[in-house]
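Try this one yourself first.
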């Protein structure tokens, strides 16, 4: 669902960028304010971010459509980290994907953050997933909540893509046809993500039930003894990024498939706007592994996400740690 710059006009992109930046600032404030902002949550954010990056490289085929999809990971992240830390983590993934791997446009980055990160972590998780799961999770609740939240989060993201494209007015994509294709295919992608999310959460609840965000009132206790969880997701990131990613579907993703159904091609004419051209030049200069064309791109990308998330979170929580040390 990563939007290219060719879909978004400069005013829409800048507007989305302002909103995304505001949400990032609020996320930093929330993560710093919450008592869970300690070494355990910082470690978990980094490792889970690396895992989600690697998992997003695997496009699974949507049977009978000629399309493919990949997980967003917002519901999974929020289940462990809470909505704001999850939003910060998933945004870091999107930034690395854009700047290093040329996945999604730089001008469209604000739109992608809103459509993919905000809709899942800040909307679908607190409004859909948490009310369904409640404080006593079981397998049925987790499956229903994961499916409902994943499908709604992806549908909202798909709707955002269509509206941003329509309001930009750069393409001749007919609104009704585009929204029908986008919401239709992403409903199936949401089912795939929901099932994958549920499978992971069910396993975790059985082995480490107190690790999920605020299922217990004392999160400091929940974050104790998470070494095995960190190791497990770290190994998972390496496996997905280093091996299984080569088994990813070659079909276009939901957005590319929708565009191809309308225009006959997944390619769109780039905008001639000066700001869009400048943004593309910046992204081109930073994209050292465009289109994940390096055999080690999955592993390297996961490590980059790990370092970026740890660095950002360390800086955000530095003042809190200083205050805690002074009180002691």
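Now uncover the answer:
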């Amino acid at each position: 669902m990563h939007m290219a710059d060719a879909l978004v006009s400069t005013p829409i992109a800048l507007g989305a960028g302002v909103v995304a930046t505001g949400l990032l600032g609020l996320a930093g404030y929330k993560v710093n304010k919450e008592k869970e902002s300690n070494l355990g949550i910082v470690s978990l954010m980094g490792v889970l971010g690396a895992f989600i990056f690697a998992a997003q490289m695997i496009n699974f085929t949507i049977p009978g459509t000629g399309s493919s999809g990949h997980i967003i990971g917002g519901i999974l992240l929020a289940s462990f980290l809470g909505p704001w830390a999850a939003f910060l983590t998933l945004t870091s993934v999107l930034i690395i994907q854009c700047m290093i791997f040329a996945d999604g446009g730089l001008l469209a980055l604000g739109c992608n953050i809103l459509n993919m990160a905000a809709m899942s972590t800040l909307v679908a998780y607190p409004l859909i997933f948490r009310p369904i799961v409640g404080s006593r999770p079981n397998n049925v609740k987790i499956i229903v909540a994961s499916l409902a939240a994943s499908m709604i989060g992806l549908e909202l993201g798909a709707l955002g893509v269509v509206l941003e494209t329509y309001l930009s007015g750069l393409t001749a994509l007919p609104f009704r046809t585009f929204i029908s294709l986008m919401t239709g295919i992403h409903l199936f992608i949401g089912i795939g993500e929901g099932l994958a999310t549920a499978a992971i959460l069910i396993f975790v609840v059985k082995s480490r039930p107190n690790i999920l965000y605020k299922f217990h009132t004392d999160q400091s206790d929940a974050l104790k003894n998470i070494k095995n969880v960190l190791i497990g997701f770290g190994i998972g990131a390496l496996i997905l990024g280093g091996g299984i990613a080569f088994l990813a579907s070659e079909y276009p993703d939901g957005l590319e498939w929708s565009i191809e159904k309308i225009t006959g091609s997944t390619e769109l004419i780039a905008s001639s706007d000066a700001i869009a051209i400048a943004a593309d030049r910046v992204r081109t200069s930073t994209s050292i592994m465009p289109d994940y064309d390096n055999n080690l791109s999955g592993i390297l990308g996961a490590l980059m996400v790990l370092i970026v998330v740890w660095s950002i979170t360390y800086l955000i929580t530095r003042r809190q740690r200083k205050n805690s040390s002074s009180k002691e």
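Discussion: The beta strands are 60-62, 67-69. The longest helix spans residues 175-207.
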